[in-house]
Amino acid sequence: MERCFAMLKPGVLNRRIVGEVITRLERKGLQLVGLKLMNVSDSLAAKHYAEHVGKPFYQGLVDYITSGPVVVMAWQGDECVTLVRKLVGATKPAEAAPGTIRGDFCAHTQHNVIHASDCAESGEREIALYFTEDELISWTDESACWL
């Protein structure tokens, strides 16, 4: 089973659409194994966006995810990263297809509504930044035979 990290950014909470976004991921058949509402510190944001240090948009990313509470999630499933990325949509709102999370809820790249891991390795790294092992709950999905 592959794992993927996803973060609902402050705009999702401000707009009161947390449940709708989570529902889209659940309806795909993905298994939620970690969920937390939290504030992201500057140091955690710097670790999260380490690959973007020095890029012109870096400080805007940090400022946005530290501006209010976020919902961090760990999802699990076959080809989890690929499925989450398809549900999330393209990073640039103008390129995100209608029906995707970004296509339906995002108008400005700098205020993107969701972050999702771009590969399985990033997913594991990001999950480890936000969750301890005892905060991740493995459970048996009794509905798996229907998915």
Structural account:
The protein has 147 residues and is α+β, with helices and mostly antiparallel strands. It has one domain: Alpha-Beta Plaits, CATH 3.30.70. 37% of the residues lie in helices and 18% in strands. A 4-stranded antiparallel beta sheet has the order 2-3-1-4.
Largest sheet: 4 strands, antiparallel
Terminus-to-terminus distance: 15 Å
Shape field: globular
Arithmetic mean pLDDT: 94
Structural class assignment: alpha+beta
Fraction in helix: 25-40%
EC number: 2.7.4.6
Domain Nucleoside diphosphate kinase-like: 1-138
Organism: Treponema brennaborense (strain DSM 12168 / CIP 105900 / DD5/3)
Main location: cytoplasm
Can you give keywords for this protein?
147 residues, alpha+beta, Alpha-Beta Plaits, 7 helices, 18% strand, globular, NDK-like_dom_sf
What's a quick, concise take on this entry?
Homotetramer. It is an enzyme of class 2 (transferase). With 147 residues, the protein is of the alpha+beta class.
SSE blueprint:
Layout: E1 2-8, H1 10-14, H2 18-27, E2 31-38, H3 42-48, H4 58-65, E3 70-77, H5 80-88, H6 101-105, E4 114-116, H7 120-130
Antiparallel strand pairs: 1-3, 1-4, 2-3
